[in-house]
């Protein structure tokens, strides 16, 4: 036999306290389905699988797979590139901006498992969507190569669950884009050693580049902005803000004839001394 236990609230509780109790009980009742939805391992696995499939298609430039996982009225918000509306426009943006330099250069995206969080969204007892948030990194290099990321950003992706129980991306926000700092250690070079590199250079990307000595470092002006190059070796310098290195070509006599610029370990420009 089951016993029915009745909880009686003392009549001495003030009316405003009674109202607070009722609201608290109502809040618990409303949040219970959400707690159950968030703990649903099956749906969480579905979202994780769909998210992984989308980014694999992104890295592989598989446009058909991207379209399949993207809602027709998708909205993509980028803190530097603006807003992109619609599936066709978003896939075309990937085709031109991410895949446009293949096969010479491939842009790939990755996210660390520890940074990814998935939150299920429910309507009553039913889950209708999921929010995926995290930090992702971007690398550039030859197709098939394994190179370290050069940039990173935060992202939030809204996935919606359709009537067929399939998942499609509805909204994306990609923000806080910034380069990954260079953790190389600077060494000390004498003023005479630094003065070997001072002069004017010309390259494919910079028709005129003036290298100056700035204390124990070198300084160049790129697009109107002063950039400091810190010595890493006898002929190699690096930027602290980005994965950029400049190696000067020196002959047996020590005279510098030109330079090579590397981004993420890959040559991106070379020049000669004027």
UniProtKB/TrEMBL annotation:
All copies of domain Peptidase S12 Pab87-related C-terminal, residue ranges: 186-261
DUF4440 domain segment(s): 48-169
Entry-linked SUPFAM superfamilies: NTF2-like (SSF54427)
Annotated InterPro entries: DUF4440, NTF2-like_dom_sf, Peptidase_S12_Pab87-rel_C
Parts forming coiled coils: none
Keywords, sorted A to Z: Signal
Annotated spans, Disordered: 255-274
Signal peptide: 1-39
Annotated protein name in UniProt: DUF4440 domain-containing protein
Source organism (scientific name): Pseudoduganella umbonata
